[in-house]
Structure formats: structure tokens, C-alpha cells
Amino acid sequence: MKKITNHTQISKALDISPFQNLLETKKLDLYSVQKGEFIVHHLVPLENLYFLLSGKAKIKMTHENGKVSLIDFISAPSYIGELTLLGVEDSPKDVIAHTNGVLLAVPLKENQTRLLENASFMRDLAVFLGKKALHRTETLTESLNLPFSTRLARFILMTEEEGFYFEKHTEVAEYLHVSYRHLLFVLHEFTKEGLLEKASRGYKIKNYTALLKK
User: Fold this and answer.
1) Where in this chain does the record put each Cyclic nucleotide-binding domain (predicted)?
2) Range 20-28 average pLDDT
3) How far is 12 from 10, CA to CA, in rounded Å?
4) Which CATH class is domain 146-213?
5) Which pLDDT score is estimated for 103?
6) Helix (H, G, I), strand (E, B) or coil at 52
């Protein structure tokens, strides 16, 4: 991640964040992040509460046997590290930039008590966590009730980057609770129907409208 030192940019970022009127610019940092960069690594203690101002990120979990699972995707605006702030997660999960983005970093050591004691901030965080829980519940319900073609179409639209879909088949199959073979079969069907076109790396989305109607 690259630190942004322009004070005007930092002030503007603070003004559109939940930390407005709560923290001074000197108490936080602003970073730009490139696609594929780690924002949080599970082997490195989390020292900051992040707030994603633009871009998307993916959350992954590394199991004891070394296997890595795709857990979720997040889009700006979004907190990163809120469970560590609340003291309910000792070992963070990997958070990796899915697209280029910008995020604020609030050092936990200096600001944790102040944040936890601020009623307005905690109310905002509670709403965020509530929406996050609802989203995961809805995703689980969809996985049990909707046809796989519908779920895959929605996943492609959620993760697309400038008209292309690049996700790894193994991760997607596990995330969507389907076999690798069936995932490839449905992707092939989408290409035959003209929804997607095989590219050198991933797929090009040819028909957004048809994907939305799946």
C-alpha cells in the first residue's frame, strides 16, 4: 500500500468518513492500494482500523491445514478490522484488494478507547454490522433456494472488473457451494448463450441484461 501525504486529500477523506468530528487528520493515515495487494494479512497483528473509501476487497481465511477459503467480498464504504477493534477477533483474516482503492487507517493503540466510548461512532458501527449480518444471511438463503445459474450470474456481476470476470474456479466453486465440474458446465452454457466470451484470462461479459435476468 502507498501512503498518501497530501493534507487536502486526507482532509477530504476524513470529511466523508465515520471519523468526521471525531478524529484529527494527524491521528490517521490515508493509503492507496492496488489490486492484489494485502490490506490485512492473517500472520501480521492488526494495528489499524481501516475504512475503505473506494474500491472492492475480498476476505479469505487460512485454515490450520493451509487451505485457503474465500469468505466474502466487501465494497466501499466499508470498515475493515472492526472485529479487532471490538476485541472479538484476535487473529485477523486476509483482506486483499479486489480492485484499486483508497482507505483510511486509524491506529488502534492510540484511538481504540476513544472510538469505543463514542456513542455516535458505535451506533454507525452497529448499523454496519447489522447490514453485514443480513447480507450473509441472504447469501446463505440464496445458496439453498436459488438455481445455481442465478447465483453464478449475480456473482459474476458482483465481481466483474471493467467488463471482465477473472475469479479462480476453485475458489468460486467452494464459495458458491457447487462442484468444480458443475461450475465449468454452467460457465460453458453462459458462453453458448452469448452472455460471456472466453478471454485470454477469464471471461468478457457480453450481455449484462441477460445476466441480470438469470
Assistant:
1) 10-93
2) 79
3) 5
4) mainly alpha
5) 95
6) strand
Q: Report the run of H or E that residue 100 belongs to, with start and end.
A: none
How many other C-beta atoms are found inside a 10 Å radius of the C-beta of residue 33?
23
**What is the torsional sign of CA 150, 164, 17, 24?**
positive
Alpha-carbon span 61 to 49, nearest angstrom: 19
Pick the CATH number of 2-142 from 2.60.120.10, 3.30.420.40, 2.50.20.10, 3.90.1150.10: 2.60.120.10
State the average pLDDT over residues 130-145: 86
Question: Among positive and negative, which fits the CA dihedral 184, 189, 192, 196?
Answer: negative
Averaged pLDDT score across all residues of the chain: 91
Output the pLDDT for position 140.
82
Cell numbers 490485512 correspond to what residue?
Answer: 40
> Which pTM does this prediction carry?
0.84
